[in-house]
Write a structure and sequence with these properties.
- This protein has a 5-stranded mixed β-sheet with strand order 3-4-5-6-7.
- It is globular, with a radius of gyration of 19 Å.
- It is built from 10 helices and 7 strands.
- Helices cover about 45% and strands about 20% of the residues.
- It has helices at about 5-10, 15-25, 25-35, 45-65, 70-80, 95-110, 165-170, 170-185, 220-240, 255-260, and strands at about 40, 90, 120-130, 135-145, 150-160, 195-205, 210-215.
Length: about 260
């Protein structure tokens, strides 16, 4: 299997691209075609990326038969935070120091979450062919575990509140993971319905907690992702990028070029 950077260097689709077009086609154009640089990165994005790096370090250590310390994970967070080259846009009242303390508190919770299975892979890239007329869908699976003889896909998230049932049920990310798992020949996976995907949501609260939400996908949902991907690619090729103005415009990194 190719590395994630190699897969992304070729023409491709991703769930993020599809979701971006569905939320605002004009933003999709600015981000993926025009490649306009973001003037700044929202603190929530940098924070989530840095926590994700720490969780990946935890899983990698366990894959190698080691148990990481809290300091190991906190260091991984700090390295990822410092790696952001663009200005970080803090919300009112936020400071890097407060976010650093919050990250450590959240990582305490993650570190003490009971391990439910054996780690099979960490940050595993995938590539699936959705249809002959469009580029492949590529992505990276955060964590693959084996539980009771069957592979389980774990998607790490950070959020300020628990996911709604609709988010868990309708999100295209687990659909892509389930389709990829079937092609990868993971243990206990013979049909798309066999794949268990778990949103492991680390909640950014005064008292951090984990919201562990299992979900499965069906052939109908796989067909829907294929249908939506085909429509998004057709719109891209036809140059259809209307703006979708609404509440999200207030924090969009492309506010300036979109208003010209």
């Amino acid at each position: 299997m190719s590395t994630a950077p190699a897969l992304r260097s070729e023409p491709h689709l991703s769930v993020s691209q599809i979701s971006t077009w569905l939320s605002c086609p004009r933003k999709y154009r600015f981000q993926y075609l025009d490649k306009i640089p973001w003037p700044a990165v929202p603190s929530a994005l940098t924070f989530g990326t840095a926590v994700h790096a720490a969780l990946a370090a935890m899983s990698q250590a366990r894959l190698e038969g080691e148990e990481p310390s809290l300091d190991d994970l906190h260091d991984a967070y700090r390295v990822a935070w410092a790696a952001e080259s663009k200005p970080i846009e803090l919300k009112d009242g936020e400071t890097p120091e407060a976010l650093d303390a919050m990250a450590r508190a959240m990582l305490v919770v993650a570190l003490h979450q009971p391990s439910a299975g054996r780690v099979l892979a960490v940050e595993e890239p995938f590539r699936i062919e959705l249809a002959p007329s469009i580029p492949p869908l590529v992505g990276v699976i955060d964590l693959i575990e084996e539980r009771d003889g069957r592979a389980v896909i774990v998607e790490h998230k950070t959020a300020g509140q628990r996911f709604t049932e609709q988010r868990v049920t309708d999100d295209y990310q687990p659909t892509a993971y389930a389709m990829a798992s079937l092609e990868m020949g993971l243990p206990g996976v013979k049909s798309i319905e066999d794949v268990e995907v778990r949103f492991n949501v680390l909640l950014k609260l005064k008292k951090p907690a984990i919201d562990d939400r299992p979900t499965r996908r069906s052939r109908r949902q796989a067909d829907e992702l294929r249908e939506v991907a085909l429509a998004v690619w057709a719109a891209r090729e036809a140059g259809i990028f209307p703006p979708n103005r609404g509440w999200a415009c207030a924090t969009c990194p492309f506010r300036a070029p979109c208003s010209r």
